[in-house]
Amino acid sequence: MGAVRIVVVGGSFGGLATAYELRRHLSPERAEITLVAKDDQFRFVPSFPWVAMGQRRLEQISFPLAGPLANKHVAFAQETVTGIDTATRVVSTNAGEHPYDFLVVATGHRSANEAVEGLGPFDGPGHSPMSAGETEELAQAIGRLLADPGPVVIGAAPGASCIGPVYELAFELDHLLRHRKLRHQVPMTVLTPEPFLGHMGMGGAGKIRQLLEGALEERDIAYRTSVAITKITEDAVESTDAAPTPSVLSIVIPPLAGVEAVAASPGLANPKGFIPVDDHYRHHQADGVYAVGVAVALPPAGDTPVPVNFPKTGHMTEQMAKIAARDLTARVEGREGATAELSARCILDMGDRGAYMAVDPVRPPRDRIPTVSEGRQWLYAKQAFERAYLFSARRGKLVPTALGW
Ligand SMILES: Cc1cc2nc3c(=O)[nH]c(=O)nc-3n(C[C@H](O)[C@H](O)[C@H](O)COP(=O)(O)OP(=O)(O)OC[C@H]3O[C@@H](n4cnc5c(N)ncnc54)[C@H](O)[C@@H]3O)c2cc1C
After folding, report:
1. What is the DSSP string of 25-83?
2. Which of 7, 13, 316 to mutate to test the pocket of ligand 1 (most atoms within 8 A of CB)?
């Protein structure tokens, strides 16, 4: 039997973890693996807030994909996927075509900035660190704030699913402003669609609500919950619950959608462009197709007065990648694959310390009471995890996720 052709689309947490895990189980004689990604760099996205605050340069949290993939005998194509035909099993790109026997889609998100007028930064006056370019733009905007202080709003739009960075950005900016002795000139407000602080789209996690309420209050950061932001202008954030909140720097996390190529491929995605999968991360209908990470369709944890979507963290993405890769390997070897419930571990940077959260499973109700802990050691753990992940991923390995994210 010849080698199976496996195409992985995406070169971030989902794509890289899938390619490494597949290669761990399948030799080059057994599987030809090609990873297609539009960017030639891996970027450690959880460190984008540190880039925005000037604590990291983009180069420090990035590495070129080509070398590590070549060492693993994975072909790398720096190409932009334009369409996927699941009937003929072909991935089309700006440079050609990649036929496949198995396909893993890990294309992450598109920021649905059209959802709220003024979401940005390239579509309006809002700022958000959702990509490398947007993060560098935010770093410049924070530089302007330091030179000319004024009120700041940090929040998330209705339907957002990536809420953790809202809190990190608020605590980190507060810390930076205090360090520069500018905090007294910057009224700060957090506006969140969550029904309570720390809901995070997963119904909360143990005592994280009380921890966040206390931490924002002791830092004089005002907050409002169940807020539907409707418009971001140059000097305010408008919402349905109150008069416009003055803001010269508005950092607002957008709702997410699937990337255009996926959304436009017939039969692949739901109306938002996310890919419906079963608990092995196999596509509901298209044979041989898997999806992992932010590209996957996961239903909300429950109804909330203002919509908040289910989180898809880096840690969860890596678990999905491992489950999909093992299932795919099992199919190549003619066995049944196993699956597992997703858990989540996450460390929030709070400026001078960190907050650790562990939920298992992510979706309530849960057998275990979530672990929530606060302290300086968690900030060091988050910094150590970034270094360990980059060190290992450059060398073709994944770090044990028990270290925390
Ligand atoms: C500011 C911020 C902070 C975060 N902090 C944390 C944290 O502390 N802990 C945590 O666990 N998670 C965190 N997350 C979430 C985490 O970053 C995501 O879960 C993770 O990046 C998802 O990985 P992914 O591989 O699914 O997609 P992405 O990281 O979005 O990567 C998508 C990949 O697909 C490629 N691609 C997209 N479209 C195409 C196309 N048409 N053709 C070819 N290639 C394409 C891209 O080039 C990229 O390589 C954070 C996210 C953000 C934005």
Report:
1. HS-TTTEEEEEEESSSEEE-GGGHHHHHTTSS-GGGGEEESHHHHHHTTEEEEE--EEE
2. 13
Instruction: Tell whether 227 and 267 lie within a shared domain.
Output: no
Q: What's the rounded Cα separation, in Å, for the pair 90 and 149?
A: 52
Residues with Cβ within 8 Å of 400's Cβ and at least 6 positions away in sequence, in order, are none
Does 299 lie in the same domain as 266? yes
Is 288 among the residues known to form the active site? no
Task: Kindly name the residue from 17, 162, 166, 292 that is annotated as catalytic.
Answer: 162
3-state secondary structure of 234: coil
Q: Domain check: are 290 and 226 in the same one?
A: no
Q: Measured between alpha carbons, how far is 17 from 396 in angstroms, rounded to an integer?
A: 9
Write the CATH number for 216.
3.50.50.60
Query: What's the DSSP call for residue 283?
Result: B
User: Over 80: is that where the pLDDT of 194 sits?
Assistant: yes
Closest CA to 234 of 120, 111, 113: 120
Is the confidence at residue 1, as pLDDT, over 80?
A: no
The answer to whether the CB of 106 is under 6 A from ligand 1 is yes
What token pair was written down for 69?
């993939």
pTM of the model: 0.97
Residue 14 in any domain: the answer is: yes
Q: How far is CA 348 from the centre of its chain?
A: 14
* Residue 357 appears among annotated catalytic residues: no
Q: Does position 336 have pLDDT exceeding 90, yes or no?
A: no
